[in-house]
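Progress report, Aim 2. The chain analyzed during this reporting quarter is listed below.
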Amino acid sequence: EHLILQSAFPFFVCDANFGSQKRDIEISSRVAKLRSETGYPQGFSVQSTKNATERAYITQKILADAGLNKGVALSMQSLDAKTLEHIKRDNISLDTYLELSNRFTKDKVETYSDLILGLPGETYDSYLNGIDTLINSGQHNRIQFNNLSILPNAEMGDPDYLAKYEMVTVQSEIINIHGSKVEVEDDVPEIQEVVISTYSMGEKDWRRARAISWMIAFLYFNKLVQMPLLLVHELAKVSYKNLFEMFMTTDDDRFPILSGIRDFFHEEALAIQSGRVEYKYSDEWLGVYWPADEYAYIQLAERRQMNEFYSEVEEVLRSLLPDSLDAMSMQAINDALRVNSLLISQPYLQEDIGIEVKTNALEFWQAKRAGEEIRLKYQTIFHRILRSQRYYSDLQAWCREIVWWGNKKGAYLYSVEDEPQPMADISIELAGHY
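Predicted structure tokens for the chain:
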């Protein structure tokens, strides 16, 4: 307690199974009490135990209610049975994960999941199927796609293990996400062994999986297109896997922006296989290393290409919709795309803006994210997008406070209010195609 009260920094608890012991509930309660009485600590991040459902839930709920936990980690690594057997993790219950995920969602406690790319036994298809399953189970906040690296003295690093599963590795320097280039005299860089190929996922498929992981993070978990993607899935019954793969096969001439983003992700995947660090450095944007999906988002905003980007997205989504889709669902998907395009944060946008829609698409999306069921219906609504509350005239400040600090939650959306009638004080986008 003395250490907590003397520190203004958040705490990270290095216990991979916090919540497995009775004492962990007591520790969480005491830390929450300290936070209530003193305002400290600012954060108390823990790694949840994998199978002790009730204790894990109680400890995380205590910390979340106290404002200490910025997101509950529900780590899966893989959802493929063969892969989990290979890595001796088949004792981890998917049912436990789903139960915890559903309980946290109902209590409005945000969670995020971990998947590891390059595990032996995982194929490109099983990897994508796992992502599809996680989103379908209610994970709309964040999946963290981690590259498999072999830790020193780990069983996976044994030469016999590597040979058995035909694991190919490449050495690269360890760089922290959003880390800066700091050169220290006599510094010795840390090196990691990144797995870039296995018997079940060759180098080409690894690059495909790495590239589509960034595309999924960019489109869905960064919230740039989450609203219409979720509605297309729910209303047109298109799988998330098929939705995401469509964005990886766009025609270069018809979709220059989307194709450029896709090609950038493939280039970054190839660079990692060649031994380059896992993140993309930008001297121009804060002088830090960015995940490729965030880099693409910043680039879109800086080049002021958002309108062209959403026009291309609309055309891709329309190509996926069946002719049999009813008119209300078509209208709702159109409304969702238009609202999402105005909700996504951009620098230099100062004025609030309104939009008239013909369905409750926004409410439908919010309910699905919360694990609730509501009826889609025709309803004329005027949404006020509150851009003025998060106005940035400086690109660097926007990069830091929106993209960087909002990383875990993908908190890149403006707030929105509903009005019973058009607002006289702001401009209104009328109903119609984007």
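The first strand starts at residue 11 and ends at 12. The chain has a mean pLDDT of 90. These observations will guide the mutagenesis work planned for the next reporting period.
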